[in-house]
């Protein structure tokens, strides 16, 4: 499980965009978004946290890794 804080994810459209970016980068990944906390949890990812963060940043999402 990989968790990110996405400070610029402020609305439902943003949440859909973050989930789409993760899906596009890693089609087998499952992203669960918590808009209130501005967090996304990614499970079943074949990419590591660094690669996912790079994809998010390329699409304009500033992802800060949470936890280990």
Commentary on this structure:
With 68 residues, the protein is an alpha+beta fold. It has a single domain, classed as Alpha-Beta Plaits. The chain has 2 helices and 4 strands; from the N terminus they run βαββαβ. The protein has helices at residues 12-25, 49-58, and strands at residues 2-5, 30-34, 39-43, 64-66. The longest helix has 14 residues, at 12-25.
In short:
By secondary structure, the chain is an alpha+beta fold. Helices cover 35% and strands 25% of the residues.
What is the topological layout?
Blueprint: E1 2-5, H1 12-25, E2 30-34, E3 39-43, H2 49-58, E4 64-66
Antiparallel strand pairs: 1-3, 1-4, 2-3
Keywords: Metal-binding
Protein name: Copper chaperone
Domain HMA: 4-44
Total DSSP E strands:
4
Form type: globular
The name CATH uses for the topology is Alpha-Beta Plaits
Structural class: alpha+beta
Q: What's the mean pLDDT score?
A: 96
- For the record, what CATH class applies? Alpha Beta
- One letter per element, helices H and strands E, the order comes to EHEEHE
Percent strand = 25-35%
Distance between the termini: 10 Å
Low-confidence stretches: none
Compute the gyration radius: what is it?
10 Å
What is the name of the CATH architecture? 2-Layer Sandwich
């Amino acid at each position: 499980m990989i968790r990110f804080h996405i400070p610029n994810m402020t609305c439902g459209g943003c949440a859909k965009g973050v989930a789409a970016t993760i899906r596009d980068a890693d089609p087998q990944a499952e992203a669960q978004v918590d808009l209130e906390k501005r967090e996304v949890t990614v499970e079943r990812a074949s990419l590591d946290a660094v690669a996912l963060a790079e994809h998010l940043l390329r699409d304009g999402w500033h992802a800060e890794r949470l936890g280990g």
